[in-house]
Amino acid sequence: MNKKKRTVAIVIFAVLAVALFVGTLISGTADKSESIREVMKDAVLHGQNRVSLFGLPVNPGLISAMTVTGIFLIFSLIVRIFVIPRFQMVPNKFQLLLETAVGFFDNLAKTNSPHRNRFLGAYIFTAGSYIFVGTLFELFGLEAVTTDGITISLPAPLSDINGAIMLGCLSYLVILSGGILSNKLRGVGRTLKEFSLPISMSFRMFGALLSGALVTELVYYSVYLSYGLPILVGVLFTLLHALIQAYVLTMLTSLFYGEVSEPVHKH
Question: Are residues 22 and 40 in the same domain?
Answer without folding.
Answer: no
